[in-house]
Amino acid sequence: MSPRADAPAPSDSRVRRFSRAERLVHRATAALMGVCVVTAACLYVPQLAELVGRRALVVTLHQWSGLLLPVPVLAGLASRAFRTDLTHLNRWGPHDRVWLRSALRRLPGPRPAAKFNAGQKIYASWIAGATLVMLGTGLMMWFTHLTPLVWRTSATFVHDWLALTIGIVLAGHIGMALGDPEARKGLRTGSVSGEWAGREHPLWRP
Amino acid sequence: MGRRVLLGTLGLGALGVVAAPTLQRGMESFLGAAADKDPTGLTGLLPNGGGFRYYSVTSSVPRRNATNYRLTVDGLVDRPATYTLDELRALPQTRMVRDVQCVTGWRVPDTPFEGVRLSRLLDAAGVRSSARAVRFKCFDGAYTESLTLKQARRADVLVALRMQDKDLSHSHGGPVRLYVAPMYFYKSAKWLSGITVTEKVEPGYWEERGYDVDAWVGRSNGRDDEPTS
């Protein structure tokens, strides 16, 4: 399926991409995730642990930021724009497969995408699932008397390895954002240039 | 689609928890073997990559050496004492090789510790008949630990001066740390500075925060690790 050439978004105007509520959800989630990752590193990487110390405080910060991590998204459900975006993220069209294949093979040229491209869709649902797994295993490690003892060692194992995976994926997510100032502007100001929208999200009809 | 990926991730997570014991054994043996041949030390940063982890409960720990280190022995004793590092080194040394097991899960196999038996220091101080427990203080200013007198007198409890056949480094709790071989490693207080004989066991730093006071490896804290001693 090729991107439709009719009715391209006007290239010089700004296009509304995210509402205030959506930007707040992203910002709050990013902040909580940031605290989670930084405290995790301070608990885990020996050199950082040696530098920071204060283990009980760092543990408390990590536990609470982790526990609160799903809250912004849950609160965002009150926003219609946010719910609509969740629907967009959940919907997988034939163009998404084209986008994914072209991205995986690093083919040049435009890739078809609606408001969210296939990579963003997979990232969003994977990070949501991974966050819930981290929350579940984290709770097992936190409230040690609630679950049988074998579970806790297993939970620690999953928590450790998934943490490493999330770290890598998150670095990719941030790396992509660093490479695309207009995408960042979209999340900062709420609007993007029509030219960018037409290039990156040709199937998106705002 | 999004929902499927999300549920799939959740399912994999649950599967991971179920399969963890098997996976973990495999990972440990693989990474353990890899760590032996890894000059970069990067395997040490992977989960179950082997080796010690550094835990401190304070923001910074003062450094002590042969000139300014002191270990006091006091409380319910007839002859309170203060030892310098050289005086401790001059006492008969015991070397033990056991696994180290942390309550958070990591285990370091066959780690040599060397030092003075705690029972020797207690005997030298003359423990009074009313005494039931021993309390440990650390020069990080925060960490504390306790043992019952009976536990403290065990032959596998040392005031350790050396680890892995080297003088204890600062990050491993040097110059002197406690070494309680049969218990989870939080009992082996780093940066040991004081031994006080008391009437009853007072919970230590992590024990105030939920860990078991009697921390036998494999029989406490809800864990079933292989005993270390």
TrEMBL record, chain A:
It is found in: Cell membrane. PANTHER family: NI/FE-HYDROGENASE 1 B-TYPE CYTOCHROME SUBUNIT, NI_FE-HYDROGENASE 1 B-TYPE CYTOCHROME SUBUNIT-RELATED. SUPFAM superfamilies: Transmembrane di-heme cytochromes. GO terms for biological process: respiratory electron transport chain. The chain crosses the membrane at residues 24-49, 61-82, 122-141, 161-179. It is a multi-pass membrane protein. This is Formate dehydrogenase. GO terms for cellular component: plasma membrane. Signal peptide: none annotated. It comes from the Bacteria. Pfam families: Ni_hydr_CYTB. One of its GO terms (molecular function) is electron transfer activity. Residues 17-178 form the Cytochrome b561 bacterial/Ni-hydrogenase domain. It comes from Streptomyces phyllanthi. Keywords: Cell membrane, Membrane, Transmembrane, Transmembrane helix.
TrEMBL record, chain B:
This is Molybdopterin-dependent oxidoreductase. Residues 60-206 form the Oxidoreductase molybdopterin-binding domain. Pfam families: Oxidored_molyb. InterPro entries: OxRdtase_Mopterin-bd_dom, OxRdtase_Mopterin-bd_sf. It comes from Streptomyces phyllanthi.
